[in-house]
Amino acid sequence: MATPKRIYLAGPEVFFPAEEHQAIVAEKKRLLLEYGLEGVDPLDSELASSDSETKFRLGHRIYRANRELMDSCDAIIANLTPFRGISADPGTVFEVGYMIGQGKRAFGFTLDNRYYRERAGGTDLDGLGYSIEDFEMSDNLMIEGGIYGSAGLLFVADQPGEHHFFSAELFRRCVEALASA
Description:
Layout lengths: L4 E6 L7 H17 L2 E4 L14 H17 L3 E5 L10 H12 L3 E6 L5 H4 L21 H9 L4 E3 L11 H12 L2
């Protein structure tokens, strides 16, 4: 039997309380397994730390461990629902770009169906007088353009999910598109 394709699971869920994070990741992995795919969560790395290790060093070790996980994966599914602002989590956006830069396919989903410009205030200029991009995209053009450029897809919710940052139905759509590719 062939080894299942490994799919990196990016998103802000890593910042959720442990029980909430584990429940969402378990559902993502279950849905992927239905299609013969293996889900790989950023927290799948076993990283022990000590009281003497600085936060800075630990941060760099987490970065390297996540990069190694991404290197071991064939594609990415990213939760691009705005987090702590009007745009997707910056770490998630980096991970999408990293995977695309390796020639791997990227798929994403967002539970916010407003265009980026609308979330940014719906005007031509922000409060500092700087232009707000208006390309009728869910987020910055580089994110959505990169996903489509990788032969992936971005799915946008028509309605709220069971969690303000997760919808099993929307995630399943990403998995089905990836599995049929």
